[in-house]
Amino acid sequence: MTLDPDKLARTHVAALDQILGVPFKVLDDGFVRVVDYMGSDESIVQAARVSYGKGTKKISEDRGLIRYLMRHRHTTPFEMCEIKLHVRVPMDCWRQWIRHRTANVNEYSTRYSVAIDAAQKTTPDKWRQQSSSSKQGSQGFVDPRQGKSLSHEEVELQEYVRQVYQRRLQAGVAREQARKDLPLSTYTEAYWKIDLHNLFHFLSLRIDDHAQVEIRDYAQTIGCEVVAKWCPIAWQAFLDYRMEMMNLTKLDVEIISALAKGQRESAMALAEEFGWLKRGEKGLKRNRERSELEDKLRRLNLAIPWRD
Amino acid sequence: MTLDPDKLARTHVAALDQILGVPFKVLDDGFVRVVDYMGSDESIVQAARVSYGKGTKKISEDRGLIRYLMRHRHTTPFEMCEIKLHVRVPMDCWRQWIRHRTANVNEYSTRYSVAIDAAQKTTPDKWRQQSSSSKQGSQGFVDPRQGKSLSHEEVELQEYVRQVYQRRLQAGVAREQARKDLPLSTYTEAYWKIDLHNLFHFLSLRIDDHAQVEIRDYAQTIGCEVVAKWCPIAWQAFLDYRMEMMNLTKLDVEIISALAKGQRESAMALAEEFGWLKRGEKGLKRNRERSELEDKLRRLNLAIPWRD
Amino acid sequence: MTLDPDKLARTHVAALDQILGVPFKVLDDGFVRVVDYMGSDESIVQAARVSYGKGTKKISEDRGLIRYLMRHRHTTPFEMCEIKLHVRVPMDCWRQWIRHRTANVNEYSTRYSVAIDAAQKTTPDKWRQQSSSSKQGSQGFVDPRQGKSLSHEEVELQEYVRQVYQRRLQAGVAREQARKDLPLSTYTEAYWKIDLHNLFHFLSLRIDDHAQVEIRDYAQTIGCEVVAKWCPIAWQAFLDYRMEMMNLTKLDVEIISALAKGQRESAMALAEEFGWLKRGEKGLKRNRERSELEDKLRRLNLAIPWRD
Amino acid sequence: MTLDPDKLARTHVAALDQILGVPFKVLDDGFVRVVDYMGSDESIVQAARVSYGKGTKKISEDRGLIRYLMRHRHTTPFEMCEIKLHVRVPMDCWRQWIRHRTANVNEYSTRYSVAIDAAQKTTPDKWRQQSSSSKQGSQGFVDPRQGKSLSHEEVELQEYVRQVYQRRLQAGVAREQARKDLPLSTYTEAYWKIDLHNLFHFLSLRIDDHAQVEIRDYAQTIGCEVVAKWCPIAWQAFLDYRMEMMNLTKLDVEIISALAKGQRESAMALAEEFGWLKRGEKGLKRNRERSELEDKLRRLNLAIPWRD
């Protein structure tokens, strides 16, 4: 590595500077805004190239290099970018958010100050139904007429609980204790600082449709409004190679290979062996792994051998 | 290091094996219990001694070595011990707990299952008053007659909110959304696994009297009921060298040195220079750093030069 | 979650207890041996089920659950297992090993003790040739006659450097400084403790054939000799769903889908658009991403559209 | 917290911008230089104040707040500052450096590129003697005449080993293997990115005089040349409250309190009880903890009761 004796200037990303401090609204009263950042697509390249030493600077073009790093999970260069957000989030959602342990956090303290007087409200058309297929998901919406009464009841609940909270404060109860019955829907705020590699990990889990709608909205906003502007090349690589990537397990590969060779019988035999083709009275029994492969086959336009 | 060719047996701590799985009650409906562990005082010594190689095994006696490591913050050998707890904690308290990022956690999911039907209740005599000196603390208790009405109101609130929660579930609302207005006092459960070094860090912050009473109760229980049995030598060292240790800042040292030489004048001059002796109408103005030193001087039985 | 009031016994894995303390030889003078552990396949299941609360214990059978967790990267339950190894590794290899930051480490100190008197030696038939296709890999071996002289020279070098080291010590030079010119091939030893999730991450990177042969040998040994005995179900899931898994990028999926629909033309157009089909004098120019897809197509028995 | 609707500008620190990219020389051929950074003293305050919500902005003045945070180990606000350095360090020293696991690192790869052709050389007057009191330290210097021959021998050794390395490369040996006998004194380079809290932790351990001279030089340079310019208030607080702080253990406090009350007898009794006053033929036997207290008493100008 040749040491460049010139002084450096800090990395700037004009598109991000434009939105510095600007809140992007999420949910009914939440937001995400960028407070500060360090690095850019260029810093990823710079970090990757420290490995190569002098003389190899022109081998790969920047975009190609970033895409290569993403594709092959060379993650450390992405750690060289750092971003600090100011977020406003319902505590219920924050409970999920904070499980990501690699970030730096300073949260609004309801010990020190009176709790933020805002709770996330659900409108009549947004009460989601329990999913029948997934124990931890939702699908479709509750009838809006019923939704109306649920929303009405929620407003009442939140007002009532806030009054109790206020009465406790007026009675001289310590803030740290008065807050104990506040609803999880109460908004909190925090500074949240994280490097780009760990942010991508957060986004990959939270943009995913297994994530809960609320945190998904935040993740989408961070991804599309912030990261897409900050490190556009890395963001595109992330979409192409992680978000919209398909995983084929060893079992999937074996079955597809058999099918591609025209050996439908041996594909069926493999599926049988994996325990995927057990039959009940109504035909094939549900099998999670088999239906995962079916989804992949559909996306690849390949025929599903056990369906006629 | 000579490699001992014999097979090893796992470390066991009889006193801890005795309480494995036994819940220690905390708060009205919480608990802490040990599920599994790895290592002991002996493992700390073993890890420290890998540094010394063969031939030095007898230099220090185990207890002395552990105490030396603790005193000098040689923390890595303590990381060789690991413990897994099963805890039941109000979410409000868990919000503080989870801020310790170095633990492994699996928490009860209220997306997947119906929320635990228990919320932490405050009895009439346990409503703490807001501290007048600290924005984030409490002191003394609210009048128990008022406490009675606060407690009554809390029970009502918790019952009402639970009913709303149940109505949502009955209306088919997804669990992940129905839970959004549950009170922070709702109990949750988790497996929580951490190494001894990071556990000591957790305990030092959470046994401290700046910590909130609730989490302090958990920390006390973990320290006195669990760690004291698991690694008694390390636990005693932790008390002697961390919990009951006194920090003297550079400024404190300068003042005490001056006093010890009998130079009260120059001690006063130093305090003046530090901005500790500003006077208002009622004498010395409050100064946090000065009163911290006063507390230390009292504990050391040394005179406070600016008090007569 | 119903609290089981009975006392617990610690998890034991008989197959692992059998090899506790037994060194598995790696390289010419290195080893890996298990010193202690916590947890088992069963602990992974237990941790995952804390999410489901009571009543759902029988839904999935253990094996299916572990495989599901692995397939969907639900990683936290794997963090509930912990293992402590004693390893002996050349410093050159240790430099790569230590880059995994999530482990607990106590290493033999060459400040405190005289450096271990052993350096890793390469036999005449094991000098690997620089790879022509990868800047950071090797392929094939140097001619053994030349290898013989390289090995001879290495023995001489190591002996000479050791003598210099000894002369420094005899001259009273501090160990911390005397060691400064020791070769990277010098062996070091360490206790290395890590949870199963992070161990799988280590193994996935270090068993991979892009990893250097030396650390690959250690990773293979840890995987096949240790993890396979400790958590056999998780290990098999790791092989099926991570080690032998195939990633299809968004671009790969688009091309395969087109091919599967019989639209070779549009598959070619896509590849063209991706910049994969640039031609030089000798036909298609090298393109890393294209050749990655070609490898996948071969493994899937699918035809490569741009090859005739 | 009131949301400021105005756009933000990034934090800048003029004094640090001045030295961006400028290498500070360390050892004979090493350096440290700042590549980029995020945050400033102001960001620490901003992060701390998120806790306090609106209305409390003027309570503490910035300097006082930062000093309070440092004194009371409220560490998270310091995590909001991040810095990226480019360093050139002998591998021997880097082995210690890399043990700090909380940083982001991209290191020069000797698999990918030919090893940097520079090794750290010791001049005749800089060969340190093994400490007689500490197994892992040094004291004074070896006689410079002997030093001369040691230095001469080192130059020869380094040249010889480099030639062997070159011969291997010429013989076509892969770089990843050819490097295996390079001396630990060989320089490496890396980008190293860390937040201010973890940097202070690094500095507190590595500026300490138990640290090895070489890494101490780097730590000193980072502290005095970089952090002092970047966050001058936090740096001063770090010196006052951490680097030059004195820890009194519970045992120390008990003895000093007794002395301060004039109870020399009971102070002696305590020391006896602690096992600090064992006598051999030549008077008091060495006792590490006792001599640590003696050092503290001297610094405080307090008399040592067991010395007459």
Offer a quick outline of the entry.
The first copy, chain A, contains twelve helices and ten strands.
Notes on the structure:
Four copies of one chain form a homotetramer. By secondary structure, chain A is an alpha+beta fold. Chain A has three domains: 14-114 and 187-243, Gyrase A, domain 2; 124-181; 250-299, no CATH class. In chain A, 44% of the residues lie in helices and 16% in strands. Chain A is built from twelve helices and ten strands. Chain A has helices spanning 14-17, 41-49, 62-71, 91-97, 144-170, 175-178, 196-206, 213-230, 232-243, 250-260, 264-273, 288-299, and strands at 24-26, 30-38, 82-90, 104-107, 128-130, 138-141, 187-195, 246-248, 279-280, 283-284. In chain A, the strands form three sheets. Chain A has a five-stranded antiparallel beta sheet with strand order 1-2-3-7-4. A two-stranded antiparallel ribbon of chain A has the order 5-6. Chain A has a two-stranded antiparallel sheet with strand order 9-10. In chain A, α2 packs across α3. The model of chain A has no long low-confidence stretch (mean pLDDT 93). β8 of chain B pairs antiparallel with β8 (246-248) of chain D.
Task: Give the key terms.
two-stranded antiparallel sheet, 5-stranded antiparallel beta sheet, Gyrase A, domain 2, 3 domains, 308 residues, alpha+beta, homotetramer, 12 helices, flat
What fraction of the residues of chain A are assigned to beta strands by DSSP?
15-25%
List the helices and strands of chain A in order. HEEHHEHEEEHHEHHHEHHEEH
| Rounded mean pLDDT score of chain A | 93
Cα Rg of chain A: 25 Å
Uncertain regions spanning at least 5 consecutive residues of chain A: none
CATH fold title of the largest domain in chain A: Gyrase A, domain 2
What CATH architecture of the largest domain in chain A do you see?
2-Layer Sandwich
Helical amount among residues of chain A, as a percent range? 40-55%
C-alpha geometry of chain A:
flat
Strand order across the largest sheet of chain A: 1-2-3-7-4
| Separate helix tally of chain A | 12
| CATH C-level name of the largest domain in chain A | Alpha Beta
Oligomer: homotetramer
Strand runs of chain A, count: 10
Measured by residues with Cβ under 8 Å of the partner chain's Cβ, the largest interface is:
A-D, 55 and 55 residues
Instruction: Tell me the count of domains of chain A.
Output: 3
Outline the biggest β-sheet of chain A: 5 strands, antiparallel
| Class based on secondary structure composition and strand pairing of chain A | alpha+beta
Question: Span between N and C termini of chain A?
Answer: 62 Å
